[in-house]
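The instructor's notes for this session suggest beginning with a concrete chain rather than abstract definitions. Hand out the sequence below and ask the class to guess, before any prediction is shown, which regions might be ordered.
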Amino acid sequence: MGTLEVQHLVKYPPFDAHRLVASELPISRNSEIISEDIDEEKALEMVAKLIPSFKIGEKTDWLVERRYLFDGTTIKNETYEYGVCDESEWPLVVEKQRTGWYLTPHPIHATARKFINGVVYILLLSLLYLFIEPILSFVGIPGIGTGTVRVGLLDYPLLALIVGPLFFIPLLLRVTANFSDLRRQKLFLRNPPTNPEIEIIGEAVADQDLKLKVNFKENKDNWNKISVYWRVGSLPPARDAVFAALNRTINGQPPPGLTTKLPHHWEVGLDDGTGAGEDAPMQRQEVAGGLFIRPMRVMQSGGKVEYSEDEMTLKNPTNEWPGTTISPLVKIHWEIIIHIERENEGPLLWVEPLRVKHSSTHVEQKTLMVNDGRTESEIN
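After discussion, reveal the predicted structure:
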């Protein structure tokens, strides 16, 4: 006789995952007892009727895993009941930041970020050149841009005056893009479109294609091409659950990969505590959760088709994924995206969470795909 429990393990990629070594970070894990004082055969029968186990990633890398333990030993069960669905309530981050209409940031944001990287390289090369220029002059190679220019009471190297102003260009680009984003948000809130109606035909199952119909009650004059696709990914674990899993107090020193407590702009629970940079452009504060959707840092898209009033079929994502899973540490999330191209106003997105049933098999992926968490990198 023994104890059956379900265990969730997660090592979720932070905002800038490339800056950290995954193998050096701790794994957060919690367990919940399902039944006590049962034999192994009965435990296997119970597990077969629950949400299937899955493992995405490796313990030495980023990891999202759900498994069953009997007396501390993993149960090797490869077959489960077909079509089991997690009926738990949507987490707050889905309700506030992944449901409804969303805008896409101005493309200048991405351009400015790339531009400033180039400026930094130019500056470093300029400093290196100024450092070795006396040596070049000594061997007879004439210097370029090493003369001085007086500005006020000080003399500056000519090269510095050429490179320095380049730093202001990306700042001006970002300011311009932010003003444009604020203007588009204002125009959208003044006259938002009516929500579309999405009808799922048959069942939404993790290992099957999705059939659906979409009905628009209105079609704006500036709407052009409309496409529909779906995607799946893992949402960040709850901050308090990570602290509890690692035996840390919520107001104490955060574990590696998490920042200190950040001020919340809307509601507690919308910030996963891994923010280390700007993930979204300037947003209007009266909209809870904002009008820009953040990409899931662990995410894969399924099939994409052009909109039709008739039945549409979306291909299943290439890799195997579990169905909807909602727990404090592990959140596997599916959603439908309607992408609308507009004249002069940038693309418009309708995002609708989708409750997907699990297949009847254990899911395992060796690699957990990590995406950029910045809104400007949203995959369309």
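Then share the key points. Helices lie at 40-47, 92-97, 108-138, 158-163, 168-190, 239-245. The mean pLDDT is 85.
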